[in-house]
Structures are given as structure tokens and as C-alpha cells.
Amino acid sequence: MDSASSPPSSSSSPLKRPTGQVLDGSEIMELVANNQVFSSFVDHKFHELDTDKDGKLSLKELHPAVADIGAALGLPPQGTSLDSDNIYSEVLNEFTHGSKDKVSKTEFKEVLSDILLGMAAGLKRDPIVILRIDGEDLLEFINSPAYEPEMIATFSQIHLPEGSLRDDIVKAFENLTVEQGMPPPSDPWVVSDIVEPALVSCAAGENWDKPVSQETFLLEFKRAAEHVAQRLKEQPVIVAHSENTFDGSSIRRLLSNKFELDKSLNTAIQSVPKDKTGKLAKEHLQLALDLVAPLAGLPPLGALDEMDKLLLDVFEMVDADDGKAVKEDEFKKLLTEILGAVMLQLEANPISVSSNSVVHEPLACSSTLLTPST
Q1: What distances in angstroms separate CA 369 from CA 35, 47, 360, one per listed residue?
Q2: CA torsion angle 208 211 216 221 (round to 10)
Q3: pLDDT digits over 183-225, tens only?
Q4: What's the distance, CA 285 to chain centroid?
Q5: Low complexity bias located where (predicted)?
């Protein structure tokens, strides 16, 4: 899956909900649950990674598996983002337990099973819909009653007095969504292979560098969209589309289950540094919350601006940056209070987001990790 994806944005009333193949984690669950099949899969993958054939995987030999897991999680390649690199490091530490230089097949299988089950749980909670965008939905949109009012609204937002027709048309395509039949224009391939050739073909003989009226824009954009639809018909684009609404319900379920809550809090604080007296600095509450986030149905810190703002407000409420250290029980109490405060905020004002990634390679069980090489 290509890591270039449109940034999460608040969902609006779509023309229609996208439909397509749904990846809900069930194939991954079936793979791990079938011990014979999963063992065979692990044998093949281990043999593929064990390039020196010594029966163990070195850190260098583990890197391709870690890279595949990162790609399956939608992360950019290693070295392009500090936050993502931290996640890659955590995945590698899972395999090596933070200290081992070599990993046996048994250890590899156990960790891989845990990671895949975690991915499956995430897909079950937030399924991914695989869409084939072939121009039909775009043609349907530009010929529908919704076209004129929506594009007039878009024109009023993007048009500058000194702007040209070409500028307005390019910006307008950037504002279209998959619901309107447009693959994410943030993807370089979509721009270079779909949008730009379409604009060249439909702008032939036209002067698109002059200022434009609203009426001309509506007419010319529709003509440009027809050319884009033709390109999509010739080269359909596969898009992984996901939608999610953070409404606090997952946090409420976690808080209502004392056993799971205590287990998740205890697991989280094991990764939080302690001082010589065994106390934990309140500044590490963000780290602890990030570790609890998957069970609480929350995105990682830094993944969603709206959520980050909400969390920062809650951290300020508990004086998380006052520089103090507290005992373990107090730390867990504060973390529980933070979860409760976030839950109440989301119940009052849910945050809805959607994201889209262009898939440039065949997708099998949502990850190249699950596709044995031949």
C-alpha cells in the first residue's frame, strides 16, 4: 500500500458512501487461528528472511519484516518521519525484546502472531474498503444536480482575483473526494498519470492562463472532469478508504471492564521510566496514554490534529507538565482520569475522520507481509 495518503479530515455529507471489497481482519484471524497453515507460513517467511541460513534472524534480516509491517500499518518508509521511525523501532524491539541480537523461529512466530492479531483487531474496529475508481462515479457527480451548487461553493473558496482558470481547476480537483469519484490528488501518481495528462488534452488550444468567471469555471471544470474520467476508465485507480468516528464508546467499554483496564494500565507503565524512588514523572502520561490508545479506540498522538488538541487540553487539566513525579498508583489514577475526561469530551463532540491511500500493488490480506515471495 502506498504510504502517500490524504490527511485525515472531518467528514462531510458525502454524495454516497463508498462501496467495495472490505478488509475487516477476518483473513488475518483465519490465518493465525489455523496452526498448520500459520506454521507453514512462518516457516516460509523465516526461510525467506534467514539469508545466511543459520537458523536465527539477525537485526539486519528482521528489517524487511519490520518494513512490511510498517507498510501494512500505513507508515511512510523508515527515515522519513521521526514519529514513524519510533514505531519501527518498537516493532523491532518486540522481536528482539530490546536486547537480543538474534531471534529464533519460535520467537519470531510468537511475536508475528501478536502483531498480526493486533492488526486484525484494528481492521475489525476500523475496516478498510478497497475501491476501484474508474471514472463512472466522477461522471455521475458532474452530471448530477449536486454538481453546480457544490462547485459554486468550491469556486468561492478557492478563486483568487489574480488567479487563472488552470489554477482554479487544479485546486478544484484537489477538493474532490472519493465519494465524488476522484482518487486522492495528493498521490503523485494520480497527479502525473491522471490529472496532468487530462488537463493537457482538454486545454489544447485554450488560453487557461487568464482570469475566469464563475460561469466559465463551471463549464471548463466539467470538461476537464470528463477528460479525467476518461483517463480513469483507461487506468482505474485502486484506493484504500477508511472512515472512523471517535465517540468515546471504546473508552467507556475499557473503563467499565476493571480487569482489562488494570491489565492495560499495568502494561503501559512497564514502559514508563521510573526514578530512583520508583516514582513516575507526570510528563510521561502522554507516553502511557499512547500505549493504552489501541484498547481505548484512540489514534496515536500526532496522527490527528483535532484529537491532539483535545488531549493537550485534558493534560493541562491534570497539570501533566508540572514536572512532578508521583507513585505508581497515583500515576494510574491520573491516567484513568485522563481517559474519562477524553471520553466525556468525545461523547459530547465526536470526531469523524476519513483517509484514502492509493494502492499501487496487489493487496493480499492487507499486507505484503502476508504474501510469500516466489
Answers
A1: 18, 14, 15
A2: 50
A3: 988 888 899 999 999 988 886 556 677 778 899 899 999 999 9
A4: 24
A5: 1-14
**Residue type at 7?**
P
Radius of gyration of the chain (CA): 24
Write out the three cell numbers for 321: 507538565
What the block records as the C-alpha cell of 263 is 491489565
Rounded distance between C-alpha atoms, residue 112 and residue 370, angstroms: 11
Cα gap 314→308, rounded to integer Å: 10
Instruction: Determine the angle formed by the axes of helices 147-158 and 214-234, rounding to 10 degrees.
Output: 110
According to DSSP H, which parts of the chain are helical?
26-33, 35-49, 59-72, 82-96, 105-125, 136-142, 147-158, 165-175, 188-190, 196-202, 214-234, 249-256, 258-269, 285-296, 305-317, 328-348
The residue type at 201? S
Cell numbers describing residue 289: 496514554
Task: Please calculate the CA angle 210-225-158 and round it to the nearest 5 degrees.
Answer: 50
Dihedral sign for Cα 165, 139, 1, 75, please: positive
Rounded to the nearest angstrom, the gap between the alpha carbon of residue 15 and the centroid of all alpha carbons in its chain is 23
- Name the pLDDT band for 81 (thresholds 50, 70, 90): low
Whether the model clears a pTM of 0.85, i.e. scores above it, the answer is no
In Å, what is the CA distance from 350 to each residue of 10, 300, 310, 353?
10, 17, 11, 10
| Alpha carbons within 13 A on the beta-carbon side of 291 | 19
Classify residue 193 as exposed, middle or buried by CB count within 10 Å of its CB (0-12, 13-18, 19+). Answer: middle
Give the three-class secondary structure for 35: helix
